[in-house]
Amino acid sequence: MNIEQYMIDLGQQARAASRQLLRADTNMKNSALLAIAELIEAQAETLQAENAKDLQAGKENGLDAAMLDRLALTDGVIAGMAEGLRQIAGLQDPVGEISDMSFRPSGIQVGKMRVPLGVVGIIYESRPNVTVDAAALCLKSGNAAILRGGSEAKFSNQALAKCIAAGLEKAGLPATAVQVLETTDREAVGHLIAMPEYVDVIIPRGGKGLIERISQGARVPVIKHLDGICHVYIDVDANEQKALDVAFNAKTHRYGVCNAMETLLVAESRAQEILPKLAELYATKEVELRGCEKTCAIIDAKAATEDDWATEYLAPILSIRVVTDVDAAMDHIAQFSSGHTESIITENFSTSRRFLAEVDSSSVMVNASTRFADGFEYGLGAEIGISTDKFHARGPVGLEGLTSQKYIVLGDGTIRK
Amino acid sequence: MNIEQYMIDLGQQARAASRQLLRADTNMKNSALLAIAELIEAQAETLQAENAKDLQAGKENGLDAAMLDRLALTDGVIAGMAEGLRQIAGLQDPVGEISDMSFRPSGIQVGKMRVPLGVVGIIYESRPNVTVDAAALCLKSGNAAILRGGSEAKFSNQALAKCIAAGLEKAGLPATAVQVLETTDREAVGHLIAMPEYVDVIIPRGGKGLIERISQGARVPVIKHLDGICHVYIDVDANEQKALDVAFNAKTHRYGVCNAMETLLVAESRAQEILPKLAELYATKEVELRGCEKTCAIIDAKAATEDDWATEYLAPILSIRVVTDVDAAMDHIAQFSSGHTESIITENFSTSRRFLAEVDSSSVMVNASTRFADGFEYGLGAEIGISTDKFHARGPVGLEGLTSQKYIVLGDGTIRK
């Protein structure tokens, strides 16, 4: 197999399919999504037989229990994929939305139309259900997709790809609107991220190593997030109960997620009162505390090192720093945050306004848990990832993040004088 | 001078200034813009003395008359810069705009806030007035700017930089909010476009060679447009007079601009009627016509080669192709357009809807001249460039294109269940 030529073919087919998708109305796209859901349910046995090959290989290659768990297409996962497809079919179609049409003195009427990005390349790791989820989001937003799953899931992904292709054709759409790479050779990824003529954006979904590698090599825009080093700052004017509730929830609701709090900042004037109560709460969950000098003088905690402020633990570990005020808190955040999500606990109106305006992260919150930073919680109805970039999409990326706006101009033979 | 260290210093200062700009309200930014306008007017003589050095060097280096003309800070250019600053001060401030705030079942209230991108790097060629224009747009949109002008204008740019710095300080803003490179060494550009930790976006303004070089080497997002190969398609259902008016205006209103028509497409059933009349009009302006075989059978034109369809003439030259219908026209556009601006001339409602939805360019028009694709004509009040990319900003880029939106979440001690 000549991988370069294979990728060029894929790219050309995707580009051609993306033009056909511009002609597909909402009904056609929804019909395809519903047809894929039915096919996945009808072919559950086949899918699970293919999945068994991946699971067998995974065991032989020594994948750990957690990885095998993510890889498994259980009845529940299959039902979940079908349900997800039906939910996405139910979402409002962002494509074609026209806004801000206004007349100009020259006589033209100008505004914006929301349009697909074109061709989206998605590179992801072991979970095979991402294949269906990513295909559905791209299709609904009118984009052709090129999907590259992990080698651990290759049989499962190819079986799912067949359901997707059959569903697309049933709805009268080109099967090439969603293409799943048949090779898991790394060289293919190298081409995929460097074909701006065929691919408009790359979305890597996976660990930090994968995302860094993709970002370094990409010759097309990348929607990515590297780290989730999220902060909660308990302000001078915080309500104690709200501070305890949010600081506990943001750390302990789930540990291995990007929107969990990793560093707690506490205003010096409130530390003596609040830290001991928080330490008691965290002890019930066996959260390891690492504190600055002032923190360690108040509660029992390990001494935090400079590295702690820059670490995404994804674990029951929390670093705590006592700061003088909101300015010091925002300085700390500017230095160490990954730009994902930060929350302030305060009853002070003006302090909250400053925090909202001056903290440069994709989600900025007042009196709310960082755990809310999520496409479903925000009402997007779906999420393809969370962007910590500032360009294009920022924060949870739903259907709208997979679209762009072009200008449209209507006239009556109008010419420029 | 250690250029790498110099650029890192510049970048760190810009990043710090961008944080201070997040704290600057609209009044402070407008005060700075008005102060800069006054300083430029008051120091016209100094500016022209410095400009004379550039003009003298330009003559010695053999710059042609057109380039010297662009370089000159005449009284008119100085008045224009001051006027431009006052206009930008008068525009609505996009920063801080909050939209779509809605309550979710969880109890949080979520929406979006418009925020600056952060630090904008702008690389441009000889016109020194771009220094002021770019600084003003970045400042109003709350971004710190690093500007790198052409070596031909180095004395003029440094003199303007002093006015800008003084105006910023007068308004209580950091002088480092706008930094003009003191070196025109190419190595500096190499660093500027590869410092994602300090620079959020690069905007190259200049010839295609410059833009391609920047795009190839950039490690940060680039807002760019390479070519303006714009099309007008005269449809089967075109009104003859509108077709003649728009096709004539789009080509002959100005030649050296990116939104001029370069290729005319004509539906076969209308070619016999319309082409001779158009040829007569173009003859009055001595526009050279290059046609496909069918065109040459109807009017007197040179035979067009395949290269003609892919060429931005920026000159009184027009390529003409007879096509069967709107589908063939859109196929031609998909193959050869640079994604800038295309217009259809038609009275057919359904054909116009298809053209608007299916043509993948930054501006798509019906019965209007491509010459309208311009930030001022669209009512943006200013324009830093026209983007032919699909990601982030598309089409004319005004203040809004220099901003992004982050999510804001308001709660009442709200936690995720």
Automatic annotation (TrEMBL), chains A, B:
CDD domains xrefs: ALDH_F18-19_ProA-GPR
Protein name as catalogued: Gamma-glutamyl phosphate reductase
Similarity remark: Belongs to the gamma-glutamyl phosphate reductase family.
SUPFAM superfamilies (UniProt xref): ALDH-like
PROSITE patterns: PROA
Gene Ontology molecular function terms on file: glutamate-5-semialdehyde dehydrogenase activity
Main location group: cytoplasm
Function: Catalyzes the NADPH-dependent reduction of L-glutamate 5-phosphate into L-glutamate 5-semialdehyde and phosphate. The product spontaneously undergoes cyclization to form 1-pyrroline-5-carboxylate.
Catalytic activity reported: L-glutamate 5-semialdehyde + phosphate + NADP(+) = L-glutamyl 5-phosphate + NADPH + H(+)
NCBIfam families to which the protein is assigned, alphabetical: PRK00197.1, proA
